[in-house]
Write a structure and sequence with these properties.
Two copies of one chain form a homodimer. Chain A has about 375 residues and is α/β, with parallel strands linked by helices. The first copy, chain A, is about 45% helix and about 15% strand. The radius of gyration of chain A is 20 Å and the shape is globular.
Chain lengths: ~375, ~375
């Protein structure tokens, strides 16, 4: 078990990664919150609850009030939020209530947002059940939902009281989701942690076989990287931007495919390859570093084949939320374990990187 | 012109109260924000915009994007919020955008909430156009909307960059709204500012005639009181509760009348009378203090007649958002200029206070 401290100007809390956390949740929360409040809400999804409710409930003296979010990105909406807020009000939720977000990234984002805006903010705890949510979305206080106009356009920064990343719950995670989630760990290594890159190169077998020790190591290292960045730049005004490595093209791919065929991590996998290609052209990484990192990404693939036009993808990068005042920001890796943000990437340069990525993606076996 | 500094752990900003602010808004905002961003949004209501758009636009080099909220409490909803957020997204709003909430309390609450959650928070400025919004809701960072289950159940704490309370715009405010708004100033005096009580006793004529100097004095004193309290207790964990003087019964009256017949200030006026009656019985204020304060409230009336049952009102106090863990909190005035929060008010005691208030309200002329 590893505990990583997140220390930001607005909140300090622990992220605990390890096995068996789910079965001891209530006393763990009690230790942090002082006591369990009168109303404890759990936001989860029906499939997760069907698998894990027994383990979840084991440590609670009184059963919490369970709220369900339907699975799928389209339910990450203000309509869902309204429905859930009303359920909380009808169930007697007050300012002292606590919400536990128990599920993947969507449950975490919606649950955090509910906690951020219910009665102007109540306490919440993240219990992420996917690899991606454990290493990424549950840490850092970003919460929110989508609008029809774009993803994550609505939300708040609202930190949890604690995050419990139980490696045991990954047992039921589909293989494709594990692989996609591991892309965020690859990202963590490339931008900030050279030793994580090496570990993931050398232990891919154990990691993909879900060896608990290997997973804990990767998860803890990924969280530590993110916690360090978030601690230095809580509101994404500078350093935190580097967490978006691979995301400019990744988001464009998700948008161009209607958020249907690619998992987020898969889109980021391809996006990192495009960004690495751009970095190689600019000389911020060498050809051998490029080869090594591209191989690492494919080690945790296979990434799905893509049937898209480069121009369409480049056009789709324009709407990214990270562009402020019309400036196109781009995260460029520098060697292995470092990265910077540049603002001078031209559409031509970006298109060349996308063309490389698409050529590579054309060689992938179709589903 | 008077400038009051709000100084909280999460934000520091100025509230400016005076005449002619509206005509010089853009340079004032520019001075605070550094520059006017590419996208400036104005949230307002059609009636306000019809009266004041010319003065508002006078100082802007480029016309801002105007968003409209339909008047009325029922539009203070998540449905309105979603519609407006989508308009902002379609108009190209980014993280650097600024929103100006130009209207009464509802526009301020909804505008602040839009700014709190659009792209996880953008900057905003409050330009309140009602007396009530100028002295109360625009200061302190509370934002939000209603649910069908209750008022203000959803929202955020999100402070504005600045508040500009232009006394000139009060010229078009209906007399009843001015009188209702002044109840919050009466409240400010009773709980925290004995000299404001005296000023309002001695200058009721000028204040109700909207003499600019008298209004500025009352508005600035009320804001100063609130800023002081909010500065000491931003999140309403202790001291800030005293701002709810008159609100336990006031909210119950609003709820019992379906938020239709009473203005908020009028409900608070009656609520203060109930609270004063309870305080007189407990001996925290003397009989002569009671008479003086009750007279002051009626000086800024007339408060509307009430046709309600005491038991119904007492029952309605139970659902107040300020009750945490089932504890009924009540703000009790202590002499003139001080107040405290007690948790031991019994339903019987509360009912006696409500009965007194209703007897007093029965003597009011009906509309």
């Amino acid at each position: 078990m590893q505990t990583i401290r997140v220390d930001t100007p607005s909140a300090k809390y622990d992220v605990v990664a390890g096995s068996g956390l789910l079965q001891s949740l209530a006393p763990r929360i009690q230790r942090i919150a002082g006591r369990l409040p009168r109303r404890v809400f759990v936001l989860t999804s029906a499939p997760i609850w069907a698998l894990w409710s027994e383990a979840f409930l084991a440590s609670f003296p009184e059963a919490p009030i369970v709220l369900f979010l339907e699975p799928g990105e389209k339910h990450k909406s203000l309509a869902s939020v309204e429905k859930l807020l009303r359920q909380m009000a009808r169930a007697g939720g007050d300012r002292g209530s606590l919400l536990i977000a128990f599920g993947g990234g969507i449950v975490g984002d919606v649950g955090g947002f509910l906690a951020a805006i219910y009665m102007r903010g109540i306490a919440y705890v993240q219990v992420p059940t996917t690899f991606l949510a454990q290493v990424d979305s549950s840490v850092g206080g970003k919460t929110g939902v989508n609008l029809p106009e774009g993803k994550n356009l609505v939300g708040c920064f609202h930190h949890p009281l604690a995050v419990f990343a139980d490696i045991g719950v990954l047992a039921t995670l589909p293989d494709r989701e594990l692989r996609a989630g591991l892309m965020e760990s690859v990202k963590a290594g490339i931008i900030r942690d050279r030793s994580l890159v090496r570990f993931m190169e050398e232990h891919a077998g154990e990691i993909l076989d879900r060896d608990a020790k290997a997973l804990e190591k990767v998860i803890a290292a990924s969280i530590r990287m993110k916690a360090g960045v978030v601690g230095k730049d809580e509101r994404e005004s500078g350093l935190r931007m580097i967490l978006n490595f691979g995301h400019t093209v990744g988001h464009a791919l998700e948008q161009a495919t209607g958020y249907k065929t690619l998992l987020h991590g898969e889109a980021i996998g391809w996006g990192m390859i495009a960004a690495l290609s751009l970095a190689r052209k600019r000389g911020t990484i060498s050809s051998s570093q490029f080869d090594r990192l591209e191989n690492l990404i494919h080690l945790y693939g296979p990434l799905p084949a893509l049937q898209l036009k480069a121009k369409k993808i480049v056009a789709a990068t324009g709407g990214d939320k990270k562009n402020v005042g019309g400036v196109r920001r781009f995260v460029l890796p520098i060697g292995i374990g470092d990265a910077g943000v540049v603002e001078d990437v031209s559409p031509v340069e970006l298109e060349a990187a996308v063309v490389y990525m698409l050529a590579r993606a054309a060689k992938q076996p179709a589903d």
